[in-house]
């Protein structure tokens, strides 16, 4: 089967209910810069990954496995995979 | 004679302190294992020391937890070998799934490097047998990601099963950890992870010896056990 290169973006964010002190600090800094109306900031990570796979489905399965095994700590983090 | 192995990762930096502590307490030098090793020498105690393994990239201890040597550490843990993770070692053990929960950025976002007071929350384990239940001991901490977190169900199980080994004494929690947790055991009691550094308080030159009894316990050197 022929391989195709897929561009994927993986977003890893803290689960709801997990305290995010970094997000809180950023929220405070935005307020002190005069940005009104910011009532929540949650910090996360983005991974842009290019990978070769035989299908979009295979790429997605592989990326989900990467998240479960390494990219996210599922004790505290959620992840979302999107593929172009 | 108890045999100790210390596991090294690129970026470990408390390994020398740990080697000195084990050598001074037990009189025997530990064996060293490298992160790429796929097996460990026969050991009674395996230690993952502090530091910034793999630069703490991704998450503290995340890359170390996936290193080849960790399969051997897991196998040793399953056989009942005592495993101790201090600081980055604790982070690595949680990332490897050998201990529940996770260690997050300190609540006040600052690196903390100071002495804290620890309450011995469970003295009924080999690691803590040298202490009295609820004894308060001194111990240094030095970390940026020591904010222990576990979901409510996991936390309840930890508390119900007496798996909390050490807590920061009331009002002194340096990192915002849930229930003031400073160190926990696994369910079988043979794996201990803790943020504070007992290896840095083992001889008078350190200014105190409160950490010494932890190693004496882990190495079956306490007098009560020999009697």
Description:
- The complex is a heterodimer of chains A (84) and B (227).
- Chain A is of the alpha+beta class and 84 residues long.
- Chain A has a single domain (4-83), classed as Phosphoribosylformylglycinamidine synthase subunit PurS (Mth169, Chain: A), CATH 3.30.1280.
- Helices cover 33% and strands 33% of the residues of chain A.
- Chain A is built from two helices and three strands, in the order βαβαβ.
- Chain A has helices spanning 21-32, 56-71, and strands at residues 4-14, 44-53, 77-83.
- Chain A is elongated and about 55 Å long.
- The model of chain A has no long low-confidence stretch (mean pLDDT 95).
- By secondary structure, chain B is of the alpha/beta class.
- Chain B has one domain (4-226): Class I glutamine amidotransferase (GATase) domain (Rossmann fold), CATH 3.40.50.
- Chain B has helices at 15-26, 62-65, 69-78, 88-95, 152-160, 212-218, 223-226, and strands at 4-8, 31-34, 45-48, 82-86, 102-104, 112-120, 136-143, 147-149, 164-168, 181-185, 191-194.
- Chain B has a nine-stranded mixed beta sheet, with helices on both faces.
- In chain B, strand 1, helix 1 and strand 2 (31-34) form a beta-alpha-beta unit.
- The longest helix of chain B is centred in the N-terminal third of the chain and has 12 residues, at 15-26.
- At the A-B interface, helix 1 and helix 2 of A face loops of B.
In short:
With 84 residues, chain A is α+β, with helices and mostly antiparallel strands. Chain A contains two helices and three strands.
How many whole angstroms does the radius of gyration of chain A measure?
A: 17 Å
| Strand residue percentage of chain B | 15-25%
Count every beta strand of chain A, where a strand is a DSSP E run of 2 or more residues.
3
Class of secondary structure makeup of chain A = alpha+beta
Strand portion of chain A, in percent?
Answer: 25-35%
Mean pLDDT of chain A: 95
Strand order of the largest sheet of chain B: 2-1-3-4-11-10-9-6-7
Shape of chain A: elongated
**Class by SSE composition of chain B:** alpha/beta
């Amino acid at each position: 089967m022929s391989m195709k290169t897929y561009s994927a973006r993986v977003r890893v964010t803290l689960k709801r209910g997990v305290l995010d002190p970094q997000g809180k600090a950023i929220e405070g800094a935005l307020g002190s810069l005069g940005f009104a109306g910011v009532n929540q900031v949650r910090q996360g990570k983005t991974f842009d990954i290019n990978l070769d796979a035989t299908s979009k489905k295979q790429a997605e399965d592989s990326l989900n496995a990467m998240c479960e095994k390494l990219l996210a700590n599922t004790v505290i983090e959620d992840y979302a995979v999107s593929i172009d | 004679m108890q045999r100790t192995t210390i596991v090294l990762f690129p970026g470990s930096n408390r390994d020398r302190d740990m080697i000195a502590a084990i050598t001074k307490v037990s009189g025997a030098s530990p064996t060293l294992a490298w992160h790429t090793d796929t097996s460990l020498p026969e050991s009674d105690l395996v230690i993952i020391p502090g530091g910034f393994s793999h630069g703490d990239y991704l998450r503290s201890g995340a890359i170390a937890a996936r290193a080849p040597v960790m399969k051997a550490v897991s196998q040793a843990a399953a056989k009942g070998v005592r495993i101790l993770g201090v600081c980055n070692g604790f982070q690595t053990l949680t990332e490897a799934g050998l201990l529940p929960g996770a260690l997050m950025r300190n609540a006040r976002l600052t690196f903390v490097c100071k002495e804290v007071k620890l309450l011995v929350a469970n003295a009924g384990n080999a690691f803590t047998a040298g202490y009295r239940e609820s004894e308060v001991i001194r111990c240094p901490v030095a970390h940026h990601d020591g904010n222990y977190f576990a979901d409510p169900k996991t936390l309840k199980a930890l508390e119900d099963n007496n798996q909390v080994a050490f807590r920061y004494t009331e009002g002194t929690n340096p990192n915002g950890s849930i229930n003031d947790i400073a160190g926990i055991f696994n369910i079988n009691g043979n794996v201990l992870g803790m943020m504070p550094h007992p290896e840095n308080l083992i001889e008078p030159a350190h200014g105190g010896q409160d950490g010494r009894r932890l190693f004496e316990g882990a190495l079956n050197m306490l007098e009560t056990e020999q009697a």
